[in-house]
Design goal:
247 residues; alpha/beta; Rossmann fold; four-stranded antiparallel sheet
Length: 247
Amino acid sequence: MSLLEIDGVESYYGQSHILRDVSMRVEEGEICALLGRNGAGKTTTLRSIAGARPPEVREGTVTYKGRDITDMETEDISVLGISHVPEERRVFGNLTVEENLHLADVVQNRSNTVGRDLQFEHEGQSIEQILEDFPRLAERQNQLAGTLSGGEQQMLAIARALKQSTDLLMLDEPYEGLAPQIIETVEGAIERIREEGTTVLLVEQNAVAAMKIADRCYVVDQGGVVFEGTADELREDDETRERYLGV
Ligand code: ATP
């Protein structure tokens, strides 16, 4: 059994039929990349898994640890150990960097009281570890998050997700708007969290960067899966890369 199984999912925004027969597997302990051009359906896939509405999943199933989560509320899904970092950077602008990081604990504690049979297998990272990984945030611990640059806010949003204990971390375009050097910092942090046992589903437009750390990749186009294979297989598949990823 895979950690996450998506079978024949069909998702809609109102009348628009976006995902068509999407089936995917995410294996425990891997970094799985979901790649594709603008508008291919990557974000819609993550939202369909995370229970974020819209879109509406009208057909198919999403199964996590053998449990059908297709129609579950997003809060309940997060309590099961799936953490979703959306594309839009969600930091609390009128709180400091440090307070934003501590907020992860508050959210976690709330989850613990809601989740009756809650049992995370993987601990989140400590604030010390996170600040070591992101020295830029360490320097700005007492700065209001709203005054951080876009890239720094992105780092903070990712750092907060790493802080929570989670078994499956889903990141939507974590490299977007980040300078190459900072992309490397984020890559390092993602690899470290995987080494600690968290499974990662990474949505990226930057296919080259994503293939570097991914074990397996899916490519979507026009709401359907057009490639499934290892990162090495995708690297060797010039046709798929050129046709669907433009690299
Ligand atoms: P990007 O890399 O640009 O974020 P993506 O692969 O994540 O692209 P999606 O955001 O999943 O793409 O969008 C897939 C399709 O669904 C697009 O055609 C988009 O216009 C459409 N879509 C997305 N959100 C909505 C919405 N709220 N209402 C209607 N259509 C939507």
